[in-house]
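Fold this sequence, please.
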Amino acid sequence: MDNAEFDRFADEYEVLHRANIAITGENPDYFAAYKIAAFAAFTQNFRMDSPRILDFGSGIGSSIPFFRQQFTGARLTCADPSSRSLALSRQRFQGTEQYTLLGEGEIPHDAGTFDLVFSACVFHHIPHSEHAYWLAELLRVTRPGGMLTIFEHNPFNPLTRRAVNTCPFDENAVLIPAKILLRSLNEVGWACATLRYHVFFPHALKRLRRFEKHLNGVPLGAQYSATVRKL
């Protein structure tokens, strides 16, 4: 992963992201909140009093407030290849979170360290040739019985493609079809995959969002999630 690329946009990430998603009528907090709420729902049968959670590719920490709301008492580790992003995260959300700087080598944690692993719109920034390596690393640092959820942009949604194509920090991004990600997860040893699609309606049609839970099998949502287990 290229830390220099993420360092370059860290200080203006929030402003750029807000401008890029303006077409949806929502702000960055909306998308961060929905992902963590969904992650909490996916993992409710695996919850414990103080789960060890890894946020892989945590950026400037936008998910931290929502982890604190949804996972009370969790031990959260924020991991990212951008030292500048991690520094900004510490400044924005002072608390008990731990921080890990990712390099080109392994994730610097022991095998089986984490109960739950979360990654939001990170893998389209990682070269496809490196996906298997990092998915295997996430498998290694997850305890047996633990879970991983990856959120990604859906390349078959036209508004998603437009947003990514016009976003400065997505200039090197390559969107990943859900079936390709699922195959990669399976090949490195993750199991029990569940695929869901999300974000079907913009703010102007927010009254229809109550129906989105019935549409998670329709491959037209702006984003999708893949949830898997380590057996």
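The CA atoms of residues 100 and 108 lie 8 Å apart. The beta strands are 52-56, 75-80, 98-101, 114-120, 142-153, 191-198, 223-229.
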